[in-house]
Amino acid sequence: MRLPATDNHMHLDPERGVGTEAVLRFAKKGGSAVFIVVKPRSGVPSGDTLIENNLNTLRLSERAQRESGVRCYTVLGVHPVEVHRMVSAMGAEKAVEHALRATEHAAEQVEQGSACALGEYGYPHYPVEPEVIEACDRVLLHAFELARDAGCAVQLHTPAMDEELRQRILSIAEQAGVSVSKLVKHFSPPEFSSIASAGLVPSVIATKKNIRRAVEAGSSFMMESDYIDELSRPGAVVSPEAVPKVTAALLSTGELSEELAWRIHVEVPEKTYGVEVAP
C-alpha cells in the first residue's frame, strides 16, 4: 500500500490563488489527506462575513474532495488577526461579540459533521495592544469550551511560544476543561520538545531541513504546508506538493522510516482529530 501523506494545514483561495487546483497538485504527488483551514479575508470582518467565509470554505473543501479523491477535512473559526482588525475598528466588546457568534457557528458545523475542528485561534504573530490580547483570551476561552463540548481539536495560531505564552494557553485550557491533547500548535518550530512536553500537538512546516530536525525532537508531530494560495506569493509558505514530496524524499534517503511516516501522517492526526486519514 502506498504510504499516506497528510497535510495538517492548507488554505484555498479561488479569488487570489488557484483554489481546489492546489489539492489536485497535492494528490498528484501522493497526498492522501488534507485539513483545509478557513482563510482570513481582507478588510474588517463581522459576524456575518465570518460565517459566510466559513461556509464558503466548507463548499471549497467538499469540491476539492470530489475533484481530487483526497480526504479533505475542514477547520473553521476566527483568526486572531481578524479579532485584531475588529478590535481596532469597533472596540473590544463588539469585536468579541462578532467573534463569539462566528465561533459558535463553526462549532455547530463540527457538531453536524461538516467540519472536524476549530481554528485558527490564539494571538496575532506580531505585537498588539493589551486590549487585543484580552479580546483574544476571551475568544480562545469560548473556542476551547465549545471544542470541549464537541470533542474536537483546535488549531492554534500564535507568536513564538515562550514559557509565558504556553502557560497562558494552558491556563485557559484548564479553565475551559479542554484536553491539551486536542490543541494543535500550527506552524510549530521543528525543535518542538517544549511544546510537546506541555501536551500540545506540534505541526511542522514541511521542508527537508525542518523535518530532519523534527525527527530528532520526537515522533509525535504532524506536517503542514500552510499553503496560503495567493498568486502574488507563489509557494508560500511552502507549496501544496511539499508534504508528500518531502516525505518521499526523506523516505528514499532513509532519514524517515516507514514506521515514523505512518505515525506522522496517520496515527497522530487520527488520534488528534478523530477522523480517518489512511488511504
Can you give me a brief rundown of this structure?
This protein has 279 residues and is an alpha/beta fold.
Q: Taking Cα atoms only, what radius of gyration do you get, to the nearest Å?
A: 17 Å
Q: Give the helix tally.
A: 10
- Which band does the percent of strand residues land in? 5-15%
Largest sheet: 8 strands, parallel
* pLDDT < 50 runs, ≥5 residues: none
CATH fold descriptor: TIM Barrel
- The CATH architecture comes to Alpha-Beta Barrel
- Give the oligomeric state: single chain
The CATH class designation is Alpha Beta
What is the strand tally? 8
Helical residue percent band:
40-55%
Q: Tell me, what's the shape? A: globular
Strands of the widest sheet, in order across it, are 1-2-3-4-5-6-7-8
What order do the helices and strands follow? EHEHEHHEHEHEHEHEHH
- Rounded average pLDDT: 97
Distance between the termini: 9 Å
Class from helix and strand fractions: alpha/beta
CATH superfamily: Metal-dependent hydrolases
In total, the number of domains comes to: 1
SSE blueprint and pairings:
Blueprint: E1 6-10, H1 21-28, E2 33-37, H2 47-68, E3 71-76, H3 80-90, H4 92-112, E4 117-122, H5 130-150, E5 153-157, H6 163-176, E6 183-188, H7 193-197, E7 201-205, H8 208-217, E8 222-224, H9 242-253, H10 258-273
Parallel strand pairs: 1-2, 2-3, 3-4, 4-5, 5-6, 6-7, 7-8
Provide structural commentary.
The chain has one domain: Metal-dependent hydrolases (TIM Barrel, Alpha-Beta Barrel), CATH 3.20.20.140. 50% of the residues lie in helices and 15% in strands. It has helices spanning 21-28, 47-68, 80-90, 92-112, 130-150, 163-176, 193-197, 208-217, 242-253, 258-273; strands at 6-10, 33-37, 71-76, 117-122, 153-157, 183-188, 201-205, 222-224. It has an eight-stranded parallel β-sheet with strand order 1-2-3-4-5-6-7-8. Strand 4 (117-122), helix 5 and strand 5 (153-157) form a beta-alpha-beta unit. The radius of gyration is 17 Å and the shape is globular.
